[in-house]
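Milestone M4 deliverable, item 7.
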Amino acid sequence: MRGPPAPTRPRPFLERTVAFLARELPPAPASVLEIGCGQGEVAERLARRGYDVTAIDLDRAAVAATRRRGVRAVRADVRSFRGGPFDAIVCVFSLHHVAPLSSAGAKVHGLLRPNGRLLVRDFAWEEADAPTAAFWLDTMRTLVAAGPAHPYRPLPAVDAEPLDAWRDRNQRPERLHPGRAMLRMLQIRFHVQRIERGPFLYAVLGGAVRGPRRSPLTETLFEIERRRIASGAIRPIGLDVVARRPAWDAR
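Output delivered:
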């Protein structure tokens, strides 16, 4: 039986994600459900911190990869998953895929204990304006031309308008939920305590980079994006949401 994968180089988006979750989660060994676990990196980090982690994903390869990390993983959609209740539920870059949002929100609500915490890290793609989209597209083209980046989808034509290209990428074929739709569902179903907006494009751009240059390039991109947001040159489209199921809510 294969053991857990060998340690990898620091990943800026992963490191910041784990720091956000660790700051907001109840103390270990609280039970945590991660919805849409991907390769299991976040789930593994939380398990290392002493949390009782269960991870779900619809992708067989993702579930297998997460299990190899020593984390309990189940192939399931959130609406069909049976388990819990959990002290906390975590959605990292996954809620925008879940459909329909209303029934998914109802199921997540039921999977949480009263006063349980829901932590969401995602992005509001519809809030990007023309300069923000241009930053994304121009930077991606530069990374591809320089050699280290390989986007998972072909880049738009050179004469494409950046904002049109950005909207098209997020509306087709995935049809990702806009941030406002996710926030509306969360505000209906839960007590939203805090919404933070910040850099996100660095994660998309850095995720296309292969090899040992990924981490330093991603960290540089984060700093560039952060400074441009601070100056008002581009918009912050990253979303960190901290919510709870109210203690009195027995629905």
